[in-house]
Design brief:
about 40% helix
Length: about 500
């Protein structure tokens, strides 16, 4: 990988030949209506692309292509070891095209180019390869029925899967979904967020190069209320796997009920707490974990540690250390390789974040760091890393997902109070516990209503561990690990009399 400067990336972005069409049945095509929508750069507020605006008719074409491919068995009936080879090759093609895909990711989302280069694209490739390698390692079962019967339990693909992904980690989360869906033998229609379509569109071309047959992977860019709703309501789609806001996740449950009762897997919002006890082993480590846990990726992370619950006796000391860490995290142009925080994805989202900061102040919270728009002279959408203290858990900033670089701080006096506050939210995606007491760590982790709990660390991840939440952070869904295959397969029982 070449060493590139801010000016190199700017020049490369300016000269990039961007794919902006839908990808249906192995071909790039315009939306049938001919409509496109403008994509505005988060870094400078300028339009840099016009993307095909798919609607119901385009989704119908994609579903027809996916259904035909599934029914004729060109992928579903392929030898598992061959499907494995192709998916692993796709992962390698992502690595081979690392700089191009990273550029597209940063263009779309405003995240720092170094994160795209070193985290997002490599991790997406890793997840695809992991699922590719698992393709020929999924076994059926034999039930312990009466001796005169042979009772087989086999795992079969669902058929046509709609994968609806968000804009914060578009390539990683696409890999979480298309990896197990394709490995299982399904056909897939990938609906990227309208804010981040470029990577998905290019990925489809790499899939064909890897050997995935026409119609097996389709990409339909467009808006949620049109293309997304059409996919959710389609009578010939067997599964929707959705990652995004809780509000939109509820729409997909409604769409399923209005159509064919398709399976719906939801990974939705979060308001994840750090619980820091006075006996935390190293406050510098805690401070780093808390700061990076909320400010990484501009705070646009579903499991971001957006709530800090700290034992009262160490609140002031820990807060000062978090401030010191935060002040070392460089906010800047996403194409600057030295930037560690980039731009908020859209102007609308930036205004939402800034509005929440104002709401917090009106509710009685104090801004002790940040709190303002940053770099307004660029025309881009930047927000200072912000900490609100004196936050009560009934405040909106403690209860609602801000999805930006805003940390809210609440004090507690007892473990019981900390657990009560941590669980007093409609969300239940993730949480962290910081303590030197092993028993306390176990008791607290057990009591937390969250699908993912870290102890003395934060945001550690691996393909082998499932990811998903409790309560309104999602249902019917676990991304990552072998458990993800449960989303994309169905069990068939066959009784044979001997």
């Amino acid at each position: 990988m070449s060493v590139m400067t801010l000016f190199d990336w700017q020049a490369r972005a300016a000269s990039a030949q961007l794919r902006t069409q839908a990808f249906i049945n192995g071909q790039y095509v315009d939306a049938l209506s001919g409509k496109t929508f403008a994509r505005v750069s988060p870094r400078d507020g300028q339009v840099f692309a016009h993307i095909a605006e798919c609607d119901k008719e385009d989704v119908d074409l994609a579903v027809k292509a996916a259904r035909t491919a599934f029914e004729d068995g060109r992928w579903a009936n392929m030898k598992p070891s061959e499907r494995k080879r192709i998916i692993v090759k796709l992962a390698q093609l992502m690595r081979d095209n690392l700089e191009e895909l990273a550029l597209l990711e940063t263009l779309d989302t405003g995240k720092p180019i170094n994160d795209s280069l070193k985290v997002d694209i490599p991790l997406a490739a890793t997840y695809l390869q992991w699922y590719g390698e698992a393709t020929d390692k999924l076994y059926g079962e034999i039930a312990p029925a009466a001796s005169q019967y042979l009772t087989l339990i086999t795992r079969e693909p669902l058929g046509v899967v709609g994968a609806v992904v968000p804009w914060n980690y578009p390539m990683i989360i696409s890999a979480w979904k298309i990896g197990p869906a394709l490995a299982s033998g399904n056909s897939v229609i990938l609906k990227p967020a309208e804010q981040s379509s470029l990577g998905a569109i290019r990925l489809a071309e790499l899939a064909i190069e890897a050997g995935i047959p026409d119609g097996v992977l389709n990409v339909v860019p467009g808006f949620g209320p049109t293309a997304g709703a059409a996919l959710g309501r389609h009578m010939d789609v067997n599964k929707i796997s959705f990652t995004g806001s809780t509000e939109v996740g509820k729409y997909f449950l409604r769409y399923a009920g209005e159509s064919n009762l398709k399976s719906v897997g939801l990974e939705c919002g979060g308001k994840s707490p750090h619980i820091v006890f006075a006996d935390a082993p190293d406050l510098d480590t805690v401070a780093s974990g808390v700061a990076w846990g909320i400010f990484y990726n501009q705070g646009e992370t579903c499991n971001a540690g957006s709530r800090l619950l700290v034992e009262r006796s160490i609140k002031d000391e820990l807060l000062e250390r978090i401030k010191r860490v935060t002040e070392t995290i460089k906010l800047g142009d996403p194409f600057d390789p030295t930037s560690q925080i980039g731009a908020i994805v859209t102007e609308e989202q930036m205004k939402r974040v800034l509005n929440y900061i104002e709401i917090g102040q009106a509710e009685g919270a104090n801004v002790c760091l940040g709190g303002k728009q940053a770099m307004p002279e660029t025309g881009g959408y930047y927000v200072e890393s912000t900490i609100l203290e004196n936050v009560q858990n009934n405040m909106r900033v403690a209860q609602e997902e801000i999805f930006g670089p805003v940390l809210v701080l609440t004090e507690f006096d007892t473990p019981e109070e900390a657990i009560r506050i941590a669980n007093d939210t409609s969300y239940g995606l993730a949480a962290a516990v910081w303590t030197s007491d092993l028993s306390r760590a176990h008791r607290t982790a057990r009591a937390l209503q969250a699908g993912f709990v870290w102890v003395n660390c934060f945001d550690v991840s691996d393909p082998t561990a499932p990811f998903g939440g409790f309560k309104q952070s999602g249902n019917g869904s676990r991304d990552k690990s072998l458990h993800a295959f449960d989303q994309y397969t169905q069990l068939k029982t066959t009784w044979i009399q001997l």
